[in-house]
Amino acid sequence: MFQKILIANRGEIALRVLRACKELGIQTVVVHSTADADAMHVRLADESVCIGPPPSRDSYLNIHQIVAACEITGADAVHPGYGFLAENAKFADILAAHNITFIGPSGDHIRVMGDKIEAKRTARRLGIPVVPGSEGAVSDEREAKRIAADIGYPVIIKASAGGGGRGMKVARSEAELEMALNTARSEAGAAFGDDAVYIEKYLEKPRHIELQVFGDGAGAGVYFGERDCSLQRRHQKVWEEGLSPALNESQRARIGNICAKAVADLGYSGAGTIEFLYEDGEFYFIEMNTRLQVEHPVTEAITGIDLVHEQIRVASGGGLSVRQEDIRFQGHAIECRINAEDPRNFTPSPGTITHFHTPGGLGIRVDSGVYSGYRIPPYYDSLIGKLIVHGRNRVECMMRLRRALDEFVVDGIQTTLPLFRDLVGNPDIANGDYDIHWLEKYLAASEQG
Ligand code: ADP
């Protein structure tokens, strides 16, 4: 087991990882920018190292500074959290070259899954169902037209290097294709420095369902059920729940076994999420994330298993603590991402939180790094906390969520709490009857109304 883990992140996820380390009796080092000197994870860690000024590229993304912090403190492993360097293959390689363990998969696995065209090719090879579309990058308009005619309109053009929903364009007819292709290409070039794009069938009303998987690095793979993350705004998840209201046990076991086998065949090590669009009973792979997800507590609530503990165990060579048959799903869980944003137009609302009171009681978990008097710096993303609610079934979970949202107080800034108070009372949400476009339509309608 590791002696000392350096946490290369900030906010709620830094605190989340720190808690797991403390439970396992592992010393912690956190790194932070000058803007985060007062952060909760800095206060609670055994050691902290300031690695630079506020902008992420000079601190949380500064590989040299982070490696130097490991050497100075004698950390033998790094947990990257999510975002920042969590899916940076070069970072994983550099740590390996310094004999520091990266708590995550190998640089090569990160690289394959980070390139969406390569990821899709790999998924297909591993027997995972994929969205119909081009085999690789589309080189010109003629080829794009031929493929689109083949799979049928509407189609979506996506950036191979994509992420965060950028560089995606829908074309509903051949007339729209040229424009969509050019816009997607130039957006991808500007955002990612790589203008390779590919083409896929555009699904009209899918759900976003993702499988939580784990590889032990020694040829075994397991799945921990799924999360339904269909409630999205601008391709960003807002509300996540598990298990999905849309799947039954046999559908779950079928896709779960395919994913667990794929992870095993890959020789994958650590946590991963295989994301699908799901429509009319069929799954279509869109990407694999090679890290812990923001929404991992949903899975922890329904399985009772600490996924960060498992990550640390696997990375240290100790393997998983569970086999597939030990993983059982109990009840239902919902996570709400609470952002420091205006709930109507979603503009960021940084500033000082004058009063912060979190709900409690049975089945309630709040993961947050903020506190009363905390000043939210304007440099980073706006997530200030996650509310995760568990119940014996979805109805109980929703009842408890409504009560917890009423108790939650965040004063001094604006948050997205009012949005969740609206959603929890909505009949479609109560029935679990929504697809990936539902929230955008709902928000557009509330704006007019
Ligand atoms: P990113 O990495 O940028 O988040 P993804 O490939 O994960 O991109 O897609 C993000 C979201 O975009 C999906 O959750 C879904 O809402 C939408 N999307 C992606 N591909 C398709 C498709 N083929 N048809 C319909 N919607 C899609």
Describe what you observe in this structure:
The protein is α+β, with helices and mostly antiparallel strands and 449 residues long. The chain folds into three domains: 4-103, Rossmann fold, CATH 3.40.50.20; 132-201, Dna Ligase, domain 1; 207-448, D-amino Acid Aminotransferase, Chain A, domain 1, CATH 3.30.470. The protein has helices at 11-23, 40-44, 63-73, 89-97, 107-114, 116-125, 141-151, 174-192, 249-266, 296-303, 307-315, 394-407, 417-423, 427-430, 438-448, and strands at residues 4-7, 27-33, 47-52, 77-79, 101-102, 155-159, 169-171, 197-201, 207-216, 221-233, 236-242, 269-279, 282-289, 332-339, 351-352, 355-357, 364-367, 375-376, 383-391, 409-411. The chain has an eight-stranded antiparallel β-sheet with strand order 13-12-9-10-11-14-19-17, with helices on both faces. Helix 4 (89-97) runs antiparallel to helix 5. The protein is globular. The protein starts with a strand and ends with a helix. The mean pLDDT is 96.
Summarize, please.
The chain is an alpha+beta fold. The protein has helices at residues 11-23, 40-44, 63-73, 89-97, 107-114, 116-125, 141-151, 174-192, 249-266, 296-303, 307-315, 394-407, 417-423, 427-430, 438-448; strands at 4-7, 27-33, 47-52, 77-79, 101-102, 155-159, 169-171, 197-201, 207-216, 221-233, 236-242, 269-279, 282-289, 332-339, 351-352, 355-357, 364-367, 375-376, 383-391, 409-411.
Shape: globular
Determine the mean pLDDT: 96
Determine the structural class based on helices, strands and strand pairing: alpha+beta
User: How many beta-strand runs?
Assistant: 20
Poorly predicted segments: none
Unique ligands: adenosine-5'-diphosphate
CATH architecture of the largest domain: 2-Layer Sandwich
- How many helices? 15
**Radius of gyration from the alpha-carbon trace, in angstroms:** 21 Å
Q: Span from first to last CA?
A: 57 Å
CATH topology of the largest domain: D-amino Acid Aminotransferase, Chain A, domain 1
Q: How many domains make up the coordinates? A: 3
Tell me the strand percentage band.
Answer: 25-35%
The CATH fourth-level homologous superfamily of the largest domain: ATP-grasp fold, B domain
CATH C-level name of the largest domain: Alpha Beta
Share of residues in helices = 25-40%
Biggest sheet strand order reads 13-12-9-10-11-14-19-17
The major β-sheet equals:
8 strands, antiparallel
